[in-house]
UniProtKB/TrEMBL annotation:
Transmembrane region(s): none
One Pfam family of this chain: DnaJ
Entry-linked PANTHER family: DNAJ HOMOLOG SUBFAMILY C MEMBER 24 (PTHR45255)
InterPro entries according to UniProt: DnaJ_domain (IPR001623), J_dom_sf (IPR036869)
Domain of life: Eukaryota
GO MF entries: ATPase activator activity; ferrous iron binding
Organism: Geospiza parvula
Name of this protein: DnaJ heat shock protein family (Hsp40) member C24
Signal peptide interval: none
Coiled-coil parts of chain: none
Entry keyword set: Zinc
């Protein structure tokens, strides 16, 4: 058994979703955000910093969908969310993940 510490993103928040949302609702929210932030949909006149931020946001949205769009990984993520979050004193909350 290995213990690993990692800062956990709230993938539901990234998609603007709730854990109780249906798979179809999660997909709809993902598609809406993916179209909005897709690198190919950016204006050619957009500043480099803005384009980079939108690309980063698109990657984050895609990662959220990779986790929540698959029933198996969604269940695993939901279980991990139930693990108590510890504050290590530096102001950051850290989730402790246990691998069996």
């Amino acid at each position: 058994m290995a213990l690993g510490r990692m800062e956990q993103k709230d993938w539901y928040k990234v998609l603007g979703a709730k854990p109780s949302d249906s798979p179809a609702e999660l997909k709809r929210k993902y598609q809406k955000l993916a179209l909005l932030y897709h690198p190919d949909k950016q204006a050619a006149s957009a500043a480099a910093v803005e384009a980079e931020e939108r690309t980063r946001r698109f990657q984050e949205i895609h990662q959220a969908w990779k986790v929540l769009g698959n029933e198996e990984t969604k269940q695993e993520y939901d279980l991990q969310q139930r693990v108590p979050v510890k504050n290590l004193g530096d102001g950051k909350k850290t989730c402790i993940t246990i691998y069996l």
